[in-house]
Amino acid sequence: MTLNIFLKEAFEPKNSKNTPNFLPEVSLSTTPKLLIESEGTVGKVNLSLSEAPPVEGITVTVTAPEILEFDLESLEVTGGEIVVPPVASDLFGFTINITEQDATVSLAVADDGQVEGLEAVTFTLEEPLVIFEPTFEVNPEANRGTFLIRDTPKVIPIQDSPDSLPEVSLSTSPKLLIESEGTVANVNLSLSEAPPVEGITVTVTAPEILEFNLDSLEVTGGEIVVPPVASDLFGFTINITEQDATVSLAVADDGQVEGLEAVIFTLEEPLGIFEPTFEVNPEANRGIFVIADSLEIFDDYTLF
Q: Could you read off the pLDDT of 157-169 as tens digits, one per residue?
């Protein structure tokens, strides 16, 4: 009985509705995952409160460095009112006063007429400004959402010959990365057959690439064409020159206590505007790393 009481108290949420300090929790999500420029797909940034807002509403700020990927004049809002609209700058997003328990900000993706391949835009819900008395809390497990943007719909080509294309598979190892130890993560790319002399170029996206030390990047079995950039919006492009290639990156220690995090690396389909040179293995097209600050978090558990 004593143990049960201890565990209940240990895992009791610090901000309980039974305490006067309880604040509404705000969550952010985005839909749909893929936006097509040529079709002007509408992206929706969804904001949900853990309870109904007060009469005056709850004002939050959402940042999106790549906001110019959208047609700002197409903005529509339900469940709230824009306080500070998106501006013609890559440095901002918007501020909204949420007046209902669920609010949505809709923006159509802009067609700039340029061939850019696959892009990603991340919307992040910002913490309350410390200079004011907070009126809400951010859900740490639902504080951002990422749209993938493609110039045109994926084109499935008609094969004129029975010859199949090489199949590319992606896997990751090890499963667990420890920031304090700088564990090296391996993104493994395997071909179903030896590549042609010119190699096979593939793109791997990882919105959370900044969880890694980009200077530690090493490659075997290929050559990086487009390296990871200092942004949450990209991954890397590699020309695979051997049947098995590996991209290695050490996890970065940011000195912050963040608990468990997850980073997903996804092998992207060939761009529809070019003649494809490979196929993606649908059963092995992504890998997940779990990141912990240190092994201390597992002191009371048996790992694997």
A: 434 444 578 999 9
Pairwise CA distance, residues 63 & 197, whole Å: 44
Q: Which residues contact 17 (CB under 8 A, 6 or more apart)?
A: none
Q: Residue 194 has which token pair?
A: 């030896």
Q: What is the mean pLDDT of the chain?
A: 82
Triad 195, 165, 154: Cα angle to 5°: 120
> Do residue 25 and residue 77 come from a single domain?
yes
Answering whether pTM is above 0.85, one says: no
Instruction: State whether 11 and 116 are in the same domain.
Output: yes
What confidence tier does 295 reach under pLDDT thresholds 50, 70, 90?
A: confident
- Which alpha helices (DSSP H) does the chain contain, by range? 2-10
Question: Are the CB atoms for 50 and 74 separated by under 8 Å?
Answer: no
Give the number of residues written for the chain: 304
Q: Which residue has the tokens 């990871």?
A: 228
Q: Would 304 be classed as within a structural domain? A: no
- Which residues have CB under 8 Å from 126's CB, separation 6+? 60, 61, 62, 63, 138
